[in-house]
Amino acid sequence: MENTTVSFYFNLTMFVNIGYYRYPAFIFCLLIFSFIVSANLVIILVIFRERTLHKPMYMFIACLSVNSLYGSTGFFPRFLIDLLSDTHMISRPACFTQIYVIYTYASHEFPILGIMAYDRYVAVCHPLHYHRKMTSQTVWKLAVFAWICPAFFISVCIYLSSWLPLCGNEIQKVFCAIWNITKLSCVSTVVNNIVGMLVTATALLPLFFVLYTYLRIVLVCWKSSAEFKGKVLQSCLPHVVSFVIYSIVSFSDIALSRYNIEEINPYVSVILSLEFAVIPPILNPLIYGLKLPEIRKHIFKTLLWD
């Protein structure tokens, strides 16, 4: 067995030395963070202020925006500090805290999108039973389920990783990640790997549920009028776009974590590792705020103080 390294700090090694370009990069990332916070706060404010938007679909959109704020706040402040720093050391408690926030943000997204797919499925395939099935109580139960279950599974993974004796402290990421810490272990990580695979498989279950619900929606639309298809497309398209975008960026990060980073261009690997933490929080408020007329109308009303 290799000598165990007892270190209170981890070193994030994927930060590329870009010299004075780090200042424009810092400003650019700060603007992105400011936009994410502002855009998602506007979506949340509009939905909770307007009684006409107190419907399941809009409440789930608000959940997406809350999750975007949660994940971005857990990622960007530390990332912005690292951009201006010459060293990228992070304490062990701060590292595992960052893992919890980023991983729970990531694992919340799919269940929320899955619940939104169920909402659209009931609205399209069982419209007469919609108000009976999608009550306010049901909405809150589904929202709580989407938050608590992933948080529990992530907590188990973090607990197992936190007890591993490590033979190094270098994490090949710009943020802390469970898999990268597990690879530093001096002992067998079979249990961690099995639990990690089970958690990943569980996290992907909403993906198959979304595919199933949209297959049913397509079958219903196939036999319906052009007007009905247009209404369904208008209400479902933003969700489909969000789902596809998040699926792509999530699988990119999963694939990157299993690939040898040293064989990839460092700039490309940094961009790929940042996608899931940056792209959905930026695009979700744009997709729902601009595409759904009810939200768009109230956003303009709020911004123009009309």
Task: Please provide a written account of the structure.
With 306 residues, the chain is mainly α. The protein starts with 8 loop residues before the first strand and ends with a helix. A 3-stranded mixed β-sheet has the order 2-1-3. The chain has 10 helices and 3 strands, in the order βααβαααβααααα. It has helices at residues 22-49, 56-84, 92-125, 130-133, 136-162, 178-182, 190-222, 226-257, 266-291, 293-303, and strands at 9-12, 89-91, 170-171. Mean pLDDT is 84; it is low at 1-5.
Helix-strand sequence: EHHEHHHEHHHHH
> Biggest sheet: strands side by side, in what order?
2-1-3
The end-to-end distance, rounded to whole angstroms, is 69 Å
- The helix content, as a percent range, equals over 70%
Tally of separate helices: 10
Report the portion of residues in β strands. under 5%
Query: What is the averaged pLDDT score?
Result: 84
The major β-sheet equals:
3 strands, mixed
Structural class: mainly alpha
Radius of gyration: 21 Å
Instruction: Tally the beta strands.
Output: 3
Shape assignment:
globular
- Poorly predicted ranges (pLDDT <50, ≥5 residues)? 1-5
Short structural summary:
By secondary structure, this protein is an all-alpha fold.
